[in-house]
Amino acid sequence: MTTLLHIDASARTSRSLSRGLSGHFVSDWMARRASDHVIVRDVGRYPPPITTELWIESVFTPEGERTDEQRHAVSASDELISELDRAEIIVMGSPMYNYGMPAALKSWFDNVIRIGKTFTFDLARGNYPLEPIMTGKTLVLLSSRGEFGFEPGGVREGMNHLETHIRTCAPYLGVEQMHLINSDYQEFGDERHERSINMAYEAVPRLVELLQSNLRDA
Predict the structure, then answer these.
(1) Half-sphere exposure of residue 192: CA atoms within 13 angstroms, side-chain side
(2) pTM of this prediction?
(3) CATH number among 3.30.1490.20, 2.30.40.10, 3.40.50.360, 3.30.565.10, domain 3-217
């Protein structure tokens, strides 16, 4: 059995394009592998707590020495990390807000990328002291963007701080493979937008088939 962690980050609900794409992915996956398991984490509706001084103090305090206040401060982080640890596939639906990730999704990353839980720190490693603890995961990012040209070589490549930020953080989630499906032109609302949506939806079952084929061959 494979476990999927389905994360939605859009503040929108019924009108969200990224939610539609991520939901389509999970539905298509489960239609083919009904015995698999899905963990749902909707950070768009229920944002994780932001990083505070108490949180930082708590994670750097040994577990056995934490106060009740400190244990409470990291309880949400512990839950999110447990969900991540149980998943082999991370399905992440996220819009691009101001050329980057929504604040709620950034908070999710800040809660799960945590010393002693998802990475270790050792100065003996020289200039690269951080090392992921988790391995073997696949991340599927399904995103919606108001403009266009964010792909490598595109006219807005340098403004794409959604995919690049997630790709930078992904190894500390245990991610070894990352796949992207995007829809563009949302602010234009023209035929290019409709074509982009259609292409994204058509790409979903092809990616599902590829990933499930890889599981069968493993």
Answers:
(1) 10
(2) 0.96
(3) 3.40.50.360
